Each structure stands twice: as C-alpha cells, then as structure tokens.
Amino acid sequence: MFNRFGYYFVKKTMSNYNNFPRYLASKKSVDDRALNQRAWDALAVSLDTYEDVEILEIGGGIGTMIERLLERHVLQHVRYTLLDEQSENIAAARERLPKWAEENSFVVSWEGEKLVLWKNGQVTKVAFLAEDLFDFLACRAADEKYDLLIAHAFLDLVDIPATLPKLFELLKPQGHFYFTINFDGETIFEPAIPHDEEIMAAYHRTMDERIIDGKLSGDSHAGRHLFSHLREAGGEIVEAGSSDWVVFGDENGYPADEAYFLHFIVDTVHGGLDGEIESRRLDAWASVRHAQIESGTLVYIAHQLDFFGKIP
Ligand SMILES: C[S@@+](CC[C@H](N)C(=O)[O-])C[C@H]1O[C@@H](n2cnc3c(N)ncnc32)[C@H](O)[C@@H]1O
C-alpha cells in the first residue's frame, strides 16, 4: 500500500498507528480548514451550472470528499463514482457514508450496488470502485466520460506529466477538474528539535525517489509543478491557491481526531526513513514528537496547493 504518508505501510503492521481508514477520517477536519476557498468557490459555481452531473473521484479513500460536498450543499443531481485501489478504503466508505447520511437527515437506499442519498428533492447516487486507477484507465469504455474529475491528496503520488493527459481523456469537452491538497515541498514541525532538517530532507527525498511498477512516481514539489504540467496537458487553470495543513492544539489536546492524524504522520515519517537515518537519532526524534502530541504542544504545517480548472 502506498500514498504520500503510507507507501511503506507494509512495514506499519507492527505500529500502533496503522489504521489507514482512521487516518483518512482524522484528516477530514484538517482538510476542511485547509481547502483553498477561491478554488472551492469556483468549483461550486461550476456545479451550479449543471442539471445532472457525473463526477469521478480518483484515490477517493473512504469518501470524505462526498460528505464535504453534501455538507456544503454544492451537489444537486449527481452520479458520483468513488474509485480507490484499496478495497479496505472502499469497504469503509460503503459502511461510513450511509451512516453519515442518515445522521444528516438524508433518505438512504441502495439501487443494487449504488448508494442513493436523497434530501430536499436532490439525489446523489454513489458507485464504489475498488480498482487501481491505471487498470481503470486501461479497461474503461472510450465513451465513458465525466463532467468533473476530483483528485484530493492524490496527484503527488503519481507520475503527473504521464498521468494528466490520460485523466483529461476521462472528461467530456469543457469538463472540469478539481485537484486539491497537492504537496509542495514544506513540512514544518514546531517547536524545532535536533535533526529536524536532516529528517525532513530525507523524507522529501523519499517522495521524489519513490518507484512504483518500475517508474518514478511522486513529487515533493507537485504543487508548484502542476502549473506547468496542467497547461502542458491542455488544461486551463481557473483558480489556484494554497491549502496548507495547519494543526495545533492546547493543554486539552487537538480538535476531533487530529491527535491520531499527527501520530500517524510522525509514525509514517519514522517508518519511511528506516535505513535512511541512523536509527537511534530517528527513534529519538519520533519519540519526542509523539510526546509533544500527547502534551498538545506539537504544531504541524504542510504546504500544499489546490487547483480548479477545465479542458477545452
Ligand atoms: C493520501 S490518500 C487520500 C485519500 C482521499 N482522497 C482523502 O483525502 O481522504 C491517497 C489514496 O489514493 C489511493 N491510491 C493510490 N494509488 C492509487 C491508484 N493507482 N489507483 C487508485 N487509488 C490509488 C490510496 O489507496 C489512498 O486511499
């Protein structure tokens, strides 16, 4: 399993912080604060122009973006395909979304494998696909096209210049893309402690040197590089802006489940640098950071960028 914080998850089985669906759930409140408002508003305006809209979300995890779109009332009549290669995530989405919807006063039913959410005359139908994106791209029917493509905390995991043209082929003419939480080279933990710089540099290097299926996949500066990659693939950027994660607590701890989010990230840096950094230094660094989370004193900032745009 891999993702920005988890491509070495195979090593995580012994860790206390190895529940990826819980990590994705804990990330929701952090993402809610972080998402760039201008890019979001442009997305909302475009969704308002559709009577019926077909949305594909790639690397959609446990479906928190669907919840967010519904919570913020930007979906009307929607067919939404949630694709993620991890069947564990899709299973969590199938369980979590109906519960969330009932708690939020939707009428919930199933049409075969599709979840149907109805409220105030508006219907969202969700299809769940546990499939690798590249298999999906290779096997889909050529006329299977979408109005909107969403990739949230995903693009920085793949070979972006090679992948974007294939993604744009999934869009109908004048279709839109909403690509958010693209990491852009800055990870900050405060207060500073010994070996931060060495550890962060090695951590970012692992993103740049990641090889999946024999190909370099990942970019620690994906955010800034997307400006040129999107244009070269034929996309027009309508809005772009920062979507930094900023997580801080106090003597009462952190909001929602954000302490778990922080433990998971520290643990993933720790596990990912196994063999890269002298183990006593790395262990000491991680144990100080975990202790700071317990006392509510760790501040974590990651610089990221969001993009909303369209194709011709
Ligand atoms: C950082 S997570 C983000 C998940 C979700 N978008 C969110 O923010 O909650 C990246 C997700 O991409 C999925 N993923 C990674 N590579 C993939 C691929 N080739 N095809 C489909 N999904 C993939 C992972 O399983 C993971 O759930």
Question: Can you put this structure into words, describing what you see?
Answer:
With 312 residues, the chain is α/β, with parallel strands linked by helices. Helix content is 39%, strand content 28%. The chain is built from 10 helices and 12 strands. α3 (64-71) links the parallel β1 and β2 (77-84). Residues 3-4, 24, 27, 59-61, 64, 83-86, 89, 132-134, 152-154, 157 line the site of S-adenosylmethionine.
CATH architectural grouping = 3-Layer(aba) Sandwich
The tally of beta strands, per DSSP, is 12
Rounded to an integer, what's the Rg over CA atoms? Answer: 19 Å
Give the end-to-end Cα distance, rounded to a whole number of Å. 35 Å
CATH homologous superfamily classification = Vaccinia Virus protein VP39
Tell me, what's the shape? globular
CATH C-level class is: Alpha Beta
What ligands does this structure carry?
S-adenosylmethionine
- Integer tally of domains: 1
What string gives the helices and strands in order?
HHEHEHEEEHEHEHEEHEEHHE
- Portion of residues in beta strands equals 25-35%
- Determine the structural class based on helices, strands and strand pairing: alpha/beta
CATH topology: Rossmann fold
Q: What ranges have pLDDT less than 50 throughout 5 or more consecutive residues?
A: 1-10
* Major sheet summary line: 10 strands, mixed
